[in-house]
Design a protein that fits this description.
The chain is α+β, with helices and mostly antiparallel strands and 82 residues long. The protein has three helices and four strands; from the N terminus they run E-E-H-E-E-H-H. The strands form two sheets. The protein has a two-stranded antiparallel ribbon with strand order 1-2. Strands 3-4 form a two-stranded antiparallel sheet. A hairpin with a 4-residue loop joins strand 3 (32-36) and strand 4.
């Protein structure tokens, strides 16, 4: 369920309510990403951004294939042409 809150900005800082910080695991020092979405500002944790990126990439990954191994093989082939 989407929640809309209203906060004030003081000296360029926004204080997130404690219930949202707890829900998303945001503590002092937690790194967040602030994006200009074209419709407003989005704030997400670095962990959430990584999770979303992994989810987007998952549809391009063949199960049982190691992308790291494939990259190493590709680099080995490229080095043999040098």
């Amino acid at each position: 369920m989407e929640q809309t809150i209203r906060v004030k900005v003081h000296n360029g800082r926004v204080v997130l309510p404690v219930d949202l910080r707890k829900k998303y695991g945001i503590e002092d020092g937690t790194e967040v990403i602030v994006s200009n979405t074209g419709h407003g500002i989005e704030v997400m944790t670095l962990n959430e951004a990584v999770r979303q990126a992994q989810e987007l990439c998952a549809k391009y990954i063949t199960p049982g294939i190691s992308l790291v191994d494939e990259l190493r093989k590709e680099r080995d082939r490229d080095e043999s042409f040098v």
